[in-house]
């Protein structure tokens, strides 16, 4: 793999690290299976791209994208809490609706951002002036943004409010008995999670210079792969460990996939990506269980020998 | 402190399974009184507590806590007025969170949860102090998962949790029912200690007539959704289980046929 490709893989790994954070918040923390991300990711991209093309400041465009993502999360929460629709189903409904809405936002199925100013543009220009490779600077900026997001989530979950949110995903009846508004926490959690994913979509659009309505398909799979891979490799109870784990999981996932594709092993093609992902996630889920089983069998064998 | 006016609770109204759990129950509990509520299975004891806490939907009646009408307030809105300990140790705590995290949750009952850190060194010290009164050595294990503790230990911690935030009311829903006799006695003794120290008004639902008479100042007996006995003061002090049963027979004209209630 070339250095350029390596940088690109790291960059996309970090961008999707925000998706991993969002998925961690809903699947792991809130215990709310949320498929909305397949809709909020391209919505973030669509809103950011449309706004930038319309001449709006790219930072404001990114903020609008975060807002749009949050809105998707709120819709899902509304359907699940107020309307009593099963959470998984509610998120699917939002995800499906978002597809059409994204086309409406962009006015077309995809939008190119070539030549437009993005949030990265000033840094890229600065890099060119100084003489550093602009790819490294871009990676650095994305890394900073991801680190800031990770810090924000860690700090939030360590607060009283965040503790209430975490507890809602563990035992909502107890939270109510302790005066916590579980509905509020769920709304907030879903909005935050999808806001992060919208942010990721906006970054994706600006780093790849396009927004496409189909770019959301499979986002949840990528997010889950990152979370599962990350938490299997870096287990830990603390929040910051989990946050770092899922972001790293996203990067490692991309690296593993890029490596598998570039090495041409077994004649793999880009279309085999889904199969590779499935195998990787399955391995990450099965490996810890196999480890415990092997350890247990060893102990049983030793104990049996002692008795004999 | 608590005023229950004509509480009516019906489950599955209008269907074959319709069950009138509470048929117009009225009860006034003054401040600092310790009421024990007994009754056979299905009598409506937990339902009554549920009516106070807000978990049971009522079809009629009014609930006042501290002269405030809470009839239309949700569970979490009412939580500021009353601390609760559940029957199931698993239901009252978050198993995958640590002891101190559970305590931090209970500490903020009744106040707004905001951006402040949940576990500051100041709070940890307070939690350590409060939990050391249990004498179970848990003050060194505050960062262990609460799920690692036994049922009795969890109930003991739940009691400490209930006293962390200011409230004048304590609702206990058969909180020793899931414990072995030794642990149950420990938790009941602890209950007495906590109630005395924080001057609380208490409603304790219990399945044991013996415990109901041995603790508190007043005993109320529910039967088929109505209050059939209400004893306090001198009369109650001199009562034992046998006399309570005789009183029941006199009032209802029938024998009480619930073995577990009589024998526990």
From TrEMBL, chain A:
<keyword id="KW-1133">Transmembrane helix</keyword>
<feature type="transmembrane region" description="Helical">
    <location>
        <begin position="6"/>
        <end position="27"/>
    </location>
</feature>
<keyword id="KW-0472">Membrane</keyword>
<dbReference type="GO" id="GO:0005886">
    <property type="term" value="C:plasma membrane"/>
</dbReference>
<keyword id="KW-0812">Transmembrane</keyword>
<dbReference type="GO" id="GO:0022857">
    <property type="term" value="F:transmembrane transporter activity"/>
</dbReference>
<feature type="transmembrane region" description="Helical">
    <location>
        <begin position="183"/>
        <end position="204"/>
    </location>
</feature>
<comment type="similarity">
    <text>Belongs to the binding-protein-dependent transport system permease family. AraH/RbsC subfamily.</text>
</comment>
<feature type="transmembrane region" description="Helical">
    <location>
        <begin position="88"/>
        <end position="107"/>
    </location>
</feature>
<feature type="transmembrane region" description="Helical">
    <location>
        <begin position="39"/>
        <end position="56"/>
    </location>
</feature>
<feature type="transmembrane region" description="Helical">
    <location>
        <begin position="273"/>
        <end position="290"/>
    </location>
</feature>
<dbReference type="InterPro" id="IPR001851">
    <property type="entry name" value="ABC_transp_permease"/>
</dbReference>
<dbReference type="Pfam" id="PF02653">
    <property type="entry name" value="BPD_transp_2"/>
</dbReference>
<protein>
    <submittedName>
        <fullName>ABC transporter permease</fullName>
    </submittedName>
</protein>
<feature type="transmembrane region" description="Helical">
    <location>
        <begin position="239"/>
        <end position="261"/>
    </location>
</feature>
<feature type="transmembrane region" description="Helical">
    <location>
        <begin position="136"/>
        <end position="158"/>
    </location>
</feature>
<feature type="transmembrane region" description="Helical">
    <location>
        <begin position="210"/>
        <end position="230"/>
    </location>
</feature>
<keyword id="KW-1003">Cell membrane</keyword>
């Amino acid at each position: 793999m070339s250095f350029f490709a390596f940088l690109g893989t790291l960059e996309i790994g970090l961008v999707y690290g925000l998706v991993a954070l969002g998925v961690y918040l809903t699947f792991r923390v809130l215990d709310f299976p949320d498929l909305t991300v397949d809709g909020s990711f391209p919505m973030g991209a669509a809103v950011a791209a449309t706004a930038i093309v319309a001449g709006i400041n790219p930072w404001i465009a990114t903020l609008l994208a975060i807002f749009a993502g949050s809105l998707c999360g709120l819709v899902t929460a509304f359907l699940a809490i107020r309307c009593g629709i099963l959470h998984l189903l509610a998120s699917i409904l939002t995800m499906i609706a978002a597809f059409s809405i994204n086309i409406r936002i962009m006015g077309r199925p995809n939008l190119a951002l070539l030549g437009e100013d993005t949030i990265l543009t000033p840094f890229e220009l600065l890099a060119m002036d100084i003489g550093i490779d602009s790819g490294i600077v871009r990676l650095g900026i994305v890394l900073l943004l991801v680190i800031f997001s990770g810090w924000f989530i860690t700090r939030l979950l360590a607060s009283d409010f965040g503790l209430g949110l975490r507890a809602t995903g563990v035992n909502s009846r107890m939270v109510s008995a302790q005066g916590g508004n579980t509905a509020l926490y769920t709304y907030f959690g879903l909005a935050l999670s999808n806001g992060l994913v919208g942010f990721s979509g906006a970054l994706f659009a600006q780093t790849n210079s396009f927004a496409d309505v189909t770019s959301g398909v499979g986002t949840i799979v990528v997010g889950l792969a990152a979370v599962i891979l990350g938490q299997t490799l870096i287990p830990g109870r603390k929040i910051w460990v989990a946050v770092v784990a899922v972001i790293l999981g996203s990067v490692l996932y991309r690296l593993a996939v890029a490596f598998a594709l570039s090495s041409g092993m077994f004649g793999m093609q880009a279309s085999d990506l889904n199969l590779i992902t499935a195998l990787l996630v399955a391995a990450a889920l099965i490996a810890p269980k196999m480890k415990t089983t092997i350890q247990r069998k060893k102990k049983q064998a030793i104990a049996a020998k002692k008795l004999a | 402190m608590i005023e229950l006016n004509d509480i009516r609770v019906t489950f599955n109204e209008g269907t074959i399974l319709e069950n009138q759990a509470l048929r117009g129950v009225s009860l006034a509990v003054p401040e600092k009184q310790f009421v024990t509520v007994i009754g056979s299975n299905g009598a409506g004891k937990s339902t009554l507590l549920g009516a106070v806490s807000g978990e049971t939907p009522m079809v009629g009646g009014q609930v006042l806590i501290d002269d405030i009408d809470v009839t239309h307030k949700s569970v979490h809105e009412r939580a500021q007025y009353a601390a609760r300990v559940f029957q199931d140790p698993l239901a009252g705590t978050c198993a995958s969170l640590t002891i101190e995290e559970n305590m931090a949750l209970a500490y903020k009952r009744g106040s707004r949860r905001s951006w402040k850190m949940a576990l500051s060194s100041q709070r940890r010290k307070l939690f350590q102090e409060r939990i050391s009164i249990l004498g179970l050595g848990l003050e060194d294990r505050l960062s262990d998962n609460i799920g690692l503790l036994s049922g009795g230990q969890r109930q003991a911690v739940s009691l400490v949790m209930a006293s962390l935030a200011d409230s004048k009311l304590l609702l206990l829903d058969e909180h020793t029912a899931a414990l072995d006799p030794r642990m149950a006695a420990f938790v009941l003794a602890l209950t007495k200690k906590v109630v005395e120290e924080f001057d609380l008004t208490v409603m304790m639902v219990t399945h044991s007539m013996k415990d109901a008479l041995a603790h508190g100042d007043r005993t109320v007996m529910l039967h088929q959704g109505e209050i059939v006995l209400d004893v306090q003061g001198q009369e109650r002090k001199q009562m034992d289980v046998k006399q309570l049963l005789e009183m029941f027979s006199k009032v209802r004209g029938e024998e009480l046929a619930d073995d577990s209630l009589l024998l526990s």
